[in-house]
Amino acid sequence: MESQAVDAVLQGLKQSGVDFISLLPDSDFSGLQKKVTGDPSFSYCAVSNEAIGVGVCAGAWLSGKRPALLVPTSGLLVAAWPLTSLCMAWGLPLLLLIPFRGDIGDAFWLMGPYKDTTEPLLGVLHIPHVVVSKTEEVTKAIVDAQGSTISWQRPVAVLLTGETIK
Amino acid sequence: MVNRADLISIFGEMVNDEMLVVTPIGSTTPLWERTGRGPTSLTSVSLGMCTPTALGLALALPHRKVIALDSDGNLILNLCSLGTVGNERPKNLTIIVFDNGNYLSGGPGKGKPGMPTATAGNMDLAAVGRGCGIEKASIVRTEAEFKVAAEKALKEDGPSMIVAKIDPVDVRQTKNFREDRGPGQDTRENKYSFARHIERLENIKILKRGGG
User: Fold this and answer.
1) What is the fold, at CATH topology level, of the domain defined by A3-160?
2) Which of A24, A63, A66 to mutate to test the interface with B (most CBs of B within 10 A)?
């Protein structure tokens, strides 16, 4: 992820009032992770699987925080259980930021299966999502998604692809 | 060993409304609801998610005592959450694990235990907790030990973890199994009652009413 895209994500998170971030350290988010951990605007909790991240964010939201979960593409599958059993069952908001590995144009063959799983899984989980490929569109997409997740009281995802994760 | 119902009853006398309690799906929740604190607790949290959700509460409200009333089957599913607790080290978090050594939900019912969990074998959850950095992790096997450990955990800084070795089956029998299974409140109502409780405690607005 290039620095311009990292800055655009940070700007979106701040503009939308996100103040609590959970993340499983991931190569696609390493630059963003460094910025987030050093930024006093955010409470930050690194987790060792994404399901725990969903739980931590659920607790944070119920405490008045505005959480976001930064989820590697594969980790969305790990998070599917509590996204269903917690967020869907309780009606809990959660902003999901997902680098869309395996999208068309991703040269790494091992990511191919996630083209088949990512968007269909979000559909099955009733998680509305927006796909963003241009860096200039990232900030607004995050602000809109955060507004929607709070308004609708269910998770909303932003999939980052194209130049945003180069 | 002791039974879960008695320990929950004892613990119910120790906590007050200023403390936040999270309970998992399974036998603990209906027993906790008997204390009358169901609407001000987060209850029936899904398998493996009790301690992670309590951790989120504890991190977001560091001045307020948060207790996860977890269980062996639930905790083992997301065991790595203890690593996060051990690294974050929230002073206000206490994890109580009712460890009966079996999956009651997979059991035959009628007062018989289900398939064994790993703690029925060689797993020592308190040792796992200490290995993850939760230094105040202990095992209790009697009501007296539980009282001492719980009082200490509520009084002192954490994180702390109490693994209570309990009877393999609960006192509650299964005569009216189906009739007993209805929730005191469903998850949506629990969300609102719990969030409103925190709003009152913290004097904040969590559930905001938006404009058109």
Assistant:
1) Rossmann fold (3.40.50)
2) A63
The residue ranges of every structural domain in chain A are 3-160
Average pLDDT over residues B47-68: 97
The string of pLDDT tens digits covering residues B9-49 is 999 999 999 999 999 998 899 899 889 888 899 999 999 99
Largest CA distance in chain B: 58
- Cis peptide leading into residue B159 (ω within 30°): yes
Lookup: tokens for B45: 């949290």
Phi, psi for B171 (deg, rounded to 5): -60, -40
Q: Which value does ipTM take for this structure?
A: 0.92
As a whole number of angstroms, the distance between CA B116 and CA B133 comes to 27
Measured between alpha carbons, how far is B9 from A159 in angstroms, rounded to an integer?
A: 47
Closest of A135, A136, A133 to residue A159, by C-alpha: A133
| Nearest residue of chain B to residue A78 (CA atoms) | B78
Give me the residue label for tokens 């955990």.
B153
Q: How many CB pairs under 8 A join A and B?
A: 119
pLDDT (mean) for B97-105: 90
Closest CA to B93 of B142, B136, B39: B136
CA contacts within 13 A on the Cβ side of A105: 10
Q: Which domains does chain B have, with CATH numbers?
A: 4-202 (3.40.50.970)
Residue A112 CB neighbours (<10 A): 11
Q: Which pTM was predicted?
A: 0.93
How far, in Å, CA of A7 to CA of B130, rounded? 39
CA distance B142 to chain A (A): 31
Please give, rounded to a whole number of angstroms, the shortest distance from the CA of B1 to a CA of chain A: 31
Round to whole Å and give the CA distance between B92 and B201: 16
